[in-house]
Specification:
- The protein is an all-alpha fold.
- It is 62% helix and 0% strand.
- The protein has one domain.
- The chain has five helices and no strands.
- The relative contact order is 0.12.
Length: 92
């Protein structure tokens, strides 16, 4: 696992879930866990950090990981399009 969710993720789960939302909760949990497992490796993040350190005038933000495309899309697409993408991602 690239990033360990720790105890905070366990705290997000409710004690008594509403049965009508079980499917959505299951899909959302699967997406979250997939993101945690597929996150950027420490080595990839270290490479980005080294690039920042070696750059005379570093940028304000740097992206690392396989889903950096999502952040890039967020810069050019309207919020409604990003919400639609996220909804489709969660509906898998």
């Amino acid at each position: 696992m690239a990033t360990h969710p720790g105890e905070r993720f366990a705290q997000l789960k409710v004690a008594a879930a509403i049965s009508d939302y079980t499917g959505q909760e299951t899909r959302a949990t699967a997406v979250y866990q997939h993101g945690q497992q597929g996150g950027a490796s420490p080595q990839a993040v270290a490479r980005v950090i080294l690039r920042i350190i070696r750059t005379p005038a570093p940028a304000r933000y740097y992206l690392a990981g396989s889903e950096k495309w999502y952040a890039r899309l967020g810069r050019i697409l309207p919020p409604s399009a990003m919400e639609s993408l996220a909804a489709r991602h969660l509906a898998r």
